[in-house]
Design goal:
Elements: E1 2-3, E2 6-7, H1 8-22, E3 24-29, E4 37-42, E5 45-46, E6 52-57, H2 61-68, E7 71-78, E8 83-94, H3 97-103, E9 120-134, H4 139-152, E10 160-165
Parallel strand pairs: 1-10, 2-10
Antiparallel strand pairs: 3-4, 3-7, 5-6, 6-9, 7-8, 8-9, 9-10
Length: 166
């Protein structure tokens, strides 16, 4: 696996590509306490600045955690495409109704009472540090390459990894 660190626009593009492709991540709050608090979240958008957006209820445990400590970790695991992303950042709770309506989709009706539900907030995560693993091949091709490496002893190109400096 080759290392390819990305900077600025390229780093933001990689965060957007992987976060939107994988979609669901584990949002980890209380990063300084044990046990960590982790909840699955669906990525609503990654904006041009690399910020990752989610929708959440205003009385959720993770919203309360963010109000106490803005440091969060996002862990994306796209095992079918062998894509992984870890984002450490600072989270902010947004209550602007226009922002919430822009992020809202009909699928969100499973958690909220429509886009006008007064309990909806948006969570914006500004990345401070990120790291990615992107195999570029399907899981089967990657497993085949790993098998070839085990049999032949030759290194196989199974993708890229690197730090994302935004």
């Amino acid at each position: 696996m080759s290392t390819k660190n990305l900077y600025d626009d390229k780093a933001r593009e990689k965060i957007k590509e992987l976060a939107e492709n994988v979609d669901f991540c584990m949002l980890v709050t209380n990063v300084d306490e044990k046990p960590l608090s982790a909840i699955p979240m669906s990525t609503k958008e990654v904006d041009d600045h690399g910020a990752v957006w989610f929708l959440s209820k205003n009385d959720s445990d993770h919203n309360r955690d963010i109000e106490k400590d803005k440091d969060v970790q996002l862990l994306y695991s796209g095992t079918s495409d062998m894509e992984f992303l870890s984002v450490y950042g600072e989270a902010f709770i947004e209550t602007n109704r226009e922002v919430i309506k822009e992020l809202y989709s009909k699928a969100d009706n499973a958690w909220f009472d429509g886009e006008d539900d007064p309990s909806i907030t948006a969570i914006k995560v500004n990345p401070k540090e990120a790291y990615y693993w992107d195999n570029k091949d399907s899981k089967m091709v990657t497993l085949f390459k790993l098998g070839m490496a085990a049999v032949t002893g030759d290194k196989q190109d199974i993708g890229e990894k690197g730090k994302l400096n935004v």
